[in-house]
Amino acid sequence: MSRKRGDPGLVRRWLRFNTVGGLGVIVQLSVLAIARDGAGLHYLAATAIAVEAAILHNFLWHERWTWADRTNGGRLAGRLSRLLRFHLSNGVFPLTANIALMRVFAGWLRLHYLPANVLAIAACSAANFLAGDLFVFRRGYAGASGELPHQASE
User: Fold this and answer.
1) Which of 1, 10, 85, 86 qualifies as a FRET site for 61, CA 20 to 30 Å off?
2) Are 46 and 32 contacting, i.e. CB atoms less than 8 angstroms apart?
3) Can you give the pTM of this predicted structure?
């Protein structure tokens, strides 16, 4: 199967995904530390806020770089549709999993909340990539815009 023009290929896309994810980890850990130590929130509430900040950061970068060949900028309705799918697949699952894993790592095992969060993030990474590639930014999905990605540039 040949790649379409602009398609970075699976390995390159995986590297882009992990680059964005690495930046997202920095966002998540920074927001977590600010919410926990700066604002004094409970570590589970701080985790929820930090995960949401990372989700929004990651969506914007994936939309513009990781899967840019599948979005073509798109209309607002298409972007909102992808954001909703992103929140369902890369938001609800990671948020739930992060909080559950934080309860295990930081609560039961008594690890410091920052390394505990790194472990939780790592545990969810592969599932997030597959969800993005197969569900959120899948090839040929018309979404709310009504256009297939290859039709938008024709």
Assistant:
1) 1
2) yes
3) 0.72
Q: DSSP string of 41-55?
A: --HHHHHHHHHHHHH
Model confidence pLDDT, tens digit, residues 30-76: 999 999 999 999 999 999 999 899 999 999 999 999 988 888 666 78
**Residue-by-residue DSSP string for 106-129:** IIIS---HHHHHHHHHHHHHHHHH
Alpha-carbon distance of 9 to 46, in angstroms, equals: 36
- Residue 33 CA neighbour count, 13 Å, CB half: 10
Quote the tokens at residue 142.
Answer: 């018309």
32 residue type, one letter: L
pLDDT, tens digit, 9 for 90 and up, residues 73-93:
667 888 888 899 888 887 777
What's the CA gap between 103 and 97, in Å, rounded?
10
Cβ-based neighbours of 72, under 8 Å, separated by 6 or more? 149, 152, 153
Distant-in-sequence, close-in-space partners of 99: CB < 8 Å, separation ≥ 6: 44, 47, 48, 51
pLDDT for 40 equals 97
d(CA 4, CA 8): 9
